[in-house]
Write a structure and sequence with these properties.
This is Sulfatase. Residues 160-190 are annotated as: Disordered. The chain is of the alpha/beta class and 293 residues long. Helices cover 42% and strands 17% of the residues. The chain has a single domain, classed as Alkaline Phosphatase, subunit A (3-Layer(aba) Sandwich). It has an 8-stranded mixed β-sheet. A two-stranded antiparallel ribbon has the order 8-9. The chain starts with a strand and ends with a strand.
Length: 293
């Protein structure tokens, strides 16, 4: 199997489907798109790992990001206090010429994510930047949870809020005139001390991984069909929603178009659920590479 070779491959527009595993994509894509499909091996099993290993050096790209980890805030991934939990000293703005934070501008509070139309709207509203850039990436959040038909996204909502709060706190700290950090700094330090201990305790626990996924599922479906079947049904539905949006946008793209993913998604394989940093199993590493006709 070929490595993904994201930047080395020949394309003008790359549409990234977040957490899209190859096998599910291969079963449904041809209902929406024509093209040549390959299975490729990603550079990471999560967005922070994929981004930090893919975007090295300087790249002239207009990057429309529905994913909060790829942002224009200038905060390294290892300094994001909520959500990343990694050691990667990487920021998108140091390597990508123009990042559009669609995870802010196109956010839907009810859904707890950025729906596909948010990416298309941002792309259409910044055609000047697209024309200036060498290449363009649209990073859709789907099929990544939350599942749009449920409309109850929680996990991404917490990450998004956490990044916003951190951005606001750092801006406030820069504006400080010597009055000190007050109790907020103490609470933040306490949180930084406790959180790694909690994460260490949960590390490797299949039950803990499932608990995160259960936030996105209907309890009745879980009881009736089991966690894997309930999640896979909603996951495929999310993928179809994204592919329908991609199919609508492709005719507007003048150039070579590729549809791929940053990483996949696990549904209990080898005891893994969802996706985690440096967990290099096939469901997380095998991604589609579709050269659209």
């Amino acid at each position: 199997m070929e490595d993904q070779h994201f930047l080395e491959s020949d394309w003008d527009y790359c549409l990234v489907l977040d957490a899209c595993r190859y096998d599910v994509f291969s079963e449904v894509y041809d209902e929406y798109l024509d093209g040549t499909l390959e299975k490729r091996w990603s550079t990471g099993s999560s967005t922070p790992e994929w981004a930090s290993r893919t975007f090295i050096g300087d790249h002239d790209i207009a990057y429309f990001s529905g994913n909060p980890f790829i942002n224009d805030l200038g905060i390294p991934l290892n300094e994001l206090k909520w959500g990343a939990s990694c050691d990667y000293e990487w920021t998108a703005s140091e390597h990508i010429s123009n990042v559009f934070d669609v995870w802010k501008s196109g956010w839907d509070d009810d859904l707890g994510t950025v729906p596909p139309e948010g990416l298309a709207d941002a792309f259409r509203n910044h055609q000047d930047a697209v024309e200036r850039a060498e290449r363009t990436v649209l990073h859709y959040m789907q099929p990544h949870a939350p599942y749009l038909s449920r409309g109850k996204g929680q996990k991404l909502k917490q990450i998004q809020k956490g990044i916003r709060k951190q951005e606001e706190a750092e801006a406030a700290a820069e504006a400080e005139t010597g009055t000190g950090g007050g109790s907020g700094g103490a609470l933040a330090s306490l949180g930084d001390t406790i959180r790694p201990k909690v994460e260490d305790t949960l590390e490797g626990s299949e039950l803990a991984q499932k608990a995160g996924l259960w936030l996105e599922l209907d309890p009745t479906d879980v009881v009736t069909n089991g966690t894997r079947e309930a999640a896979l049904a909603l996951y495929e539905e999310n993928l179809r929603i994204a592919l329908e949006a991609v199919a609508d946008l492709v005719p507007e793209l003048d150039g070579r178009v590729v549809v791929t993913a940053d990483h996949g998604e696990a549904f209990g394989e080898e005891g893994v659920w969802e996706h985690h940093i440096e967990t290099h199993i096939p469901p997380l590493m095998e991604v589609p590479w579709l050269e659209v006709e």
